[in-house]
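--- STAGE predict ---
source: upstream dedup step, 1 unique chain passed
mode: sequence only
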Amino acid sequence: MGEHSTDDLVHALRERGARYIVDTQGQAFAVLLSLEEYEHYLDLLDDEADSQDDELATRLAHAADQPTGGERQAFRDYLHQRKASHANEVQS
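--- STAGE serialize ---
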């Protein structure tokens, strides 16, 4: 590819707002993302990893089972409960 044809390609991509990169046969092999789209993609990857985390799922289920009204659990009690549950995981 000469310098002139490279400039033409860059100009065509900018004009059309192309989102795909193609190989020499015209087959798409990459997608261009804006920074916002890339950040959203990274958030989705984090969410997917979190959805497969058993400890997090257990903690969320435990939090959902807690009554929302009335008296809240003291932080000290929570820490005591967490240490006990964590100790059981370490021993297994």
